[in-house]
Amino acid sequence: MESFPRQFARTRRFTCGAPRTVTVADDGSRVLFLRSSSGDDPINALWCLDPVTGEERLLVDPGALLAEGGHDSNRERARRERAREVGEGIVAYDGLPDLSRVCFVLAGRVFLADVGEGRVVELLSSGDAFDPRLSPDGASVAYVSGRGVRITGAGGDHRLIGDSTDTVSWGSAEFVAAEEMGRMRGHWWAPDAGHLLVARVEVAPVAEWWIASPVEPWSTPRAIRYPAAGTANAVVGLGIVALDGTVVDVDWSRDGEFEYLADVQWIEGSPPMLVAQTRDQRTLVVLEVDPSTGSVGEVYRVVDDDWVDLVPGAPCRWGGALVTVEGRGETRRLVVDGEALSPDGLQVRRIVGVDGDRVVVCASNDPLDVDVVAIGRDGSVDVLASGGGVHAAAVGGGVLAVSVADLDGSRLTVGEHRVASFAEEPAVSPTPTFHVVGERDLRAAVLFPSGASGHDGSPLPVLLDPYGGPHAQRVQRVRGQFLTSQWFADQGFAVVVVDGRGTPGRGPAWERMVRGDLAQPVLEDQVDALHALAVADDRLDLSRVAIRGWSFGGYLAALAVLRRPDVFHAAIAGAPVTDWRLYDTHYTERYLGHPDEEPLNYECTDLCAEAGSLTRPLLLIHGLADDNVVAAHTLAFSRALLEAGRPHQVLPLSGVTHMTPQEEVAENLLLLQLEFLQEALGL
Questions:
Q1: What are phi and psi of 27, to 5 degrees?
Q2: Degrees (nearest 5) of the Cα angle 425, 426, 427?
């Protein structure tokens, strides 16, 4: 029988075969989505659904289009890494508002599909295309090629704008915009289809780092521009480019007052709207551009003593009103022209879109769940999708497509119609119990061995399995959050998952409790929750406690055995940030400030400085091709441990990035972790 680790890897974490990337036409006439053919097929095809009948129709089969070959460009691969994209085939598309025509890139080639006729044509292109965007008249496609933007269509393929300098590019998002701000693009069509707003990125000020492949010593290392905390960011400019290539410059930075370009929108009936942040992220402004002159005017400003959050979908226009999402007291609220509209206690997480006289949002009353609700102009709240689990949505023309992930699995519905899913059922069945513990009402989940691999009721070794940091939750009523945790539980562990201070879902004040210190509060919450759970349940054996994690969770795991060896007896730290001065500007400075201005914040969170305190077994794992948390974190930490005479283990993963999509790597990584834990805890 196939093991869960193998199935987990083969199905790419059970994403294969599931419908995804859903869009609804603005007139409600059709719904588009991506889906592969089976639970272990990563090649996504483009599908169309009739919201009235529920009929599904295959629009584009990438297999047929790829018969002539081709390959993804380096920039497309980088974009997928930033987006944590594990699929293949068609992974993104862009269309007209009514979705009657869409474009996409496949293996570096540009395609245009007429949805009504079901006809697909390949457009002339450079062969290394990525990020295609369809013009509002449906006649042309703008795409990024090399360091510039090209346009293709009935008139052929030509370069719109580019640069011969190695350090300048047009049309792409810079690293921190894609990795941290959620802005994955760098060019936008004007509603008249006669101009584009294009970002110009100059990376010369950014430090050049190198990613080498030690198993291929003959290969030239790959250069990256990495803006580490306290160092220079890329310089981002904007230009309004006519189809003849003439450029009108836009000084959105206001002579350097703002350093981050967080969002750009250019919709019918409105001037271009920009969202910018200061370097310290304590000020966010909404700007409007005069397309004829490039002059910029400020229309709205948000200020916060710690930082202003970037919320997906916000800001947006609602008729003539400006809609934002802002922290007001203990609640992240929907705000219209400066006035809070949604009620206290409803944490708005995302704006889905404007649909007539209401704004549809994803929001939480309980951090374990995310609901889809509509908020009217009078502040009324209409719950559209709820009932436990995490709900997301797409909306248009009165049609609502809802995806839900809960403890039963995941599914997509459009009205009364359920979209078929070919995803496999996992070999494990998570049965988490949820708890609210401690003086801070920490949310926690506990998993025990399932019935098939049950135990005799005696105390079990404990494995903490957190992420524990900003931006991500683990404790939600979602089966997918606990698949790996349940597999570890079935090997004879009581697995504990805790969301502490800094994690989303409990409002701006809760998230800001880690400002200035990403170490002590998050570790303290793990310990407090563990002890509270053990008091209530004597099946948790506190004499045998391990912790594992990846990325921020890896940092937390290493921190745990360094500072609290009295609690934690072994740790697995995957791709950990060990020195925050080596992580990027936008994320790190939001929480720790600029290292020149607040150096103590970096000193008190530096794992290398505490290497001498290690007394417990520690396994460090890192992908050597990681360009997000670079392998230098683990290697520098290992050196500090060696210099301090502290035994530890290091598992380098050649050719692996911050993700671990390779099937054999992903499978064996779980098995090796289990073996380490069993040996370290004497099981």
A1: -100, 5
A2: 120
**pTM of the complete model:** 0.95
pLDDT category, 667, cuts 50, 70, 90?
Answer: confident
Cα distance between residue 125 and residue 112, in whole Å: 12
**Cβ-count burial of 214 within 10 angstroms (0-12 exposed, 13-18 middle, 19+ buried)?**
exposed
Per-residue pLDDT reduced to its tens digit, 172-226: 999 999 999 999 999 999 999 999 999 999 999 999 999 999 999 999 999 999 9
φ, ψ of residue 178 in degrees (nearest 5): -75, -40
Tell me the C-alpha distance between 543 and 94, whole Å. Answer: 55
**Residue 163's pLDDT band (boundaries 50, 70, 90)?**
confident
Cα Rg, the chain, nearest whole Å: 25
| C-alpha to C-alpha distance for 241 and 60, rounded to whole angstroms | 32
Q: How far apart are CA 228 and CA 577, in angstroms?
A: 12
Taking CA atoms, 579 is separated from 275, 561, 615, in Å, by: 30, 16, 20
Separation of alpha carbons 29 and 152, rounded Å = 27
Residue pair 489/572 in contact (Cβ under 8 Å)? The answer is: no
Identify which of 108, 136, 111 has the alpha carbon closest to the alpha carbon of residue 46.
111
Torsion of CA 114, 117, 119, 125, to 10 degrees: -20
| Longest CA span, the chain | 76
Per-residue b/e over 508-536, b at no fewer than 16 CB within 10 Å? bebbbbbbbbbbebbbbbbbbbbebbbee
Whole-angstrom distance, CA of residue 497 vs CA of residue 473? 10
With H, G, I as helix, E, B as strand and everything else as coil, classify residue 164.
coil
Q: Which amino acid is at 174?
A: E
DSSP string, 303-366: E-SS-PPP-TT-SEEETTEEEEEEEETTEEEEEETTEE-SPTT-EEEEEEEEETTEEEEEEESS
User: Could you give the CA distance from residue 12 to residue 38 in angstroms, rounded to a whole number?
Assistant: 12
Peptide bond into 315 cis (omega under 30): yes
630, 209 Cβ separation under 8 angstroms? yes
DSSP 80-139: HHHTT---EE----EE-TT-SEEEEEETTEEEEEETTTTEEEEEP--S--EEEEE-TTSS
Domains of the chain as residue ranges with CATH: 433-680 (3.40.50.1820)
CA distance 302 to 317: 16
Beta carbons of 167 and 174 less than 8 angstroms apart: no
Amino acid at 6: R
**What's the rounded Cα separation, in Å, for the pair 272 and 199?**
13
Which residues pair with residue 547 across a beta bridge?
464, 571
Least confident segment among 8-22, 63-77, 465-479: 63-77
CA distance 574 to 551: 6
SS3 label, residue 74: helix
- Is residue 457 very low, low, confident or very high in pLDDT (cuts 50, 70, 90)? confident
Question: Which residues lie below 8 Å from residue 380, measured CB to CB, with a gap of 6+?
Answer: none
Contact 98, 82 (CB under 8 A): no
CB atoms within 10 A of CB 603: 12
Place of tokens 């707003």: 197
Q: At what angle do helices 483-490 and 663-680 cross, to 10 degrees?
A: 40
Nearest to 73, CA basis, from 126, 128, 110? 128
